[in-house]
Amino acid sequence: MDKPDCHIFVCASFRADGDTKGVCNKKGSVALLPYIENEILDRGMDAQITSTGCLKACDHGPVMVVHPQGQWYGKVESEAVVDEILDAIEDGEVAESHLIQ
Question: What is the dotted CATH code of the domain comprising 6-98?
């Protein structure tokens, strides 16, 4: 199996008991998953997307993490923000304005 160039994790706020009480879920992170997946495919990116349990960065939610680059992005609340982040990934750059510092 070939490994993707990057793996994008999107916090879905799931707790161990299956509850989805967290900030990221309430702010629409799960609803962005199909958009992100379609953008990855449309752009021909060598990337994979995974929804996660709570990433414990609720003050910054919704949160998206890009590996192996190790970039943590916060306030990923719209398709426009997703586009900025994906554009940066494609260009080998960082979407500085959305980074969690």
Answer: 3.40.30.10
- Give pLDDT tens digits for 11-28: 998 766 666 668 899 899
What does pTM read for this prediction?
Answer: 0.90
Distances (CA, A) of 25 to 3, 15, 44, 75, 89: 28, 11, 27, 12, 24
In SS3 terms, the chain reads as CCCCCEEEEEEEEECCCCCCCCHHHHCCHHHHHHHHHHHHHHHCCCEEEEEEECCCCHHHCCCEEEECCCEEECCCCCHHHHHHHHHHHHCCCCCHHHECC
Selection from 39, 38, 37, 56 nearest residue 48 by Cα: 37
pLDDT in tens, 40-53: 999 999 999 999 98
